[in-house]
Amino acid sequence: MVHIVTWNVATAPPPRDVSSLLQLDTSCTNTDMYIIGLQEVNSKILNFISDLAFDDPWSLHLMDILAPLNYVKLSSIRMQGLLLLTFVKHQHIPFIQDIRTNYIRTGLFGYWGNKGGVTIRMSIYGHMVCFMNCHLPAHMENANQRLDDFERMLDAQQFDDDSFGNMLEHDLVFWFGDLNFRISDFGIHFIREAINNNKYNLLWDKDQLNAAKKKEPFLQGFLEGPLKFKPTYKFDQNSDVYDTRWKTSLFGLNNKKRKPAWTDRILWKLKDVSGSEAKDTESDFEQILKVTLEKYTSHMSYGISDHKPVTGAFTLQVISFMFIY
């Protein structure tokens, strides 16, 4: 079982209790690997310099919790406020190989790392799997820029000594983070009324990412679980109440609030092998990787940020087929 977490933590330190976030409060915990993608980790210059010399507070806190449960920190990669952590059960370590990490900046035309992606790829029991934690541009009107940035990351993200042309040549890619896609057209009152009545389906067609998946070729094949949980942005801190703050403009105070949105997402894509070259006739077996989403949800109890964390639990299964000639 692979458990993926994405959370924009808004520079806050880690909460003391992360049991629900890591599914440690369930009666049977069978997670083999944790992939934890954080955005807006405190990246003030003094904090960042300290984190270069020592593990950051989030890494230390999670390691204190997971190490006694026989998890090993496989990797940690950070680019300013973006942090990607990988923890693996000890018994799987011999079967995880070819680990590579990298990052790509997209802020300020590629010169600043406040936006972009941090990535780890590895061979898991013989299958190449890639995980990318992203923080894409904010605001309703920047949907096209979000799409452009992600398409560029797919093409440009490379690893040392890499034989892959781009990310999509891996057997499996997970894409997650604060993707910042919004709900278009509908007004704030309609959106909140739909949420209050648990009629999330009324909002799905106007979700910018759902709309883009229907027309953008580079998003074809990316899958996501149903959005059957509340939009995860924007909340008042330490509450489950959507944005009530008055904003300050050049002309004084106004009551324009942010519309709720599913900014925090987890998607995945399996490599399309239908058009690949014919199988090597000297091989009698083909191993197929199957991915099953077990749970996709948000965690409303955490209030340190204006975002709520989102988790996805996935079963990865290797299926062998024998060919008879």
TrEMBL record:
Name of this chain's protein: phosphoinositide 5-phosphatase
Pfam families in the cross-refs: Exo_endo_phos2
Enzyme class: hydrolase
A single cellular component GO annotation: endoplasmic reticulum
UniProt GO BP: negative regulation of glycogen biosynthetic process; negative regulation of insulin receptor signaling pathway; negative regulation of phosphatidylinositol 3-kinase/protein kinase B signal transduction; phosphatidylinositol dephosphorylation
Stretches assigned to the Inositol polyphosphate-related phosphatase domain: 2-322
One of the record's GO molecular function terms: phosphatidylinositol-3,4,5-trisphosphate 5-phosphatase activity
InterPro entries in alphabetical order: Endo/exonu/phosph_ase_sf, IP5, IPPc
Classification of source organism: Eukaryota, Metazoa, Chordata, Craniata, Vertebrata
Family annotation (PANTHER family): INOSITOL 5-PHOSPHATASE (PTHR11200), INOSITOL POLYPHOSPHATE 5-PHOSPHATASE K (PTHR11200:SF117)
EC nos: 3.1.3.36
TM regions (residue ranges): none
Highest taxon above the source species: Eukaryota
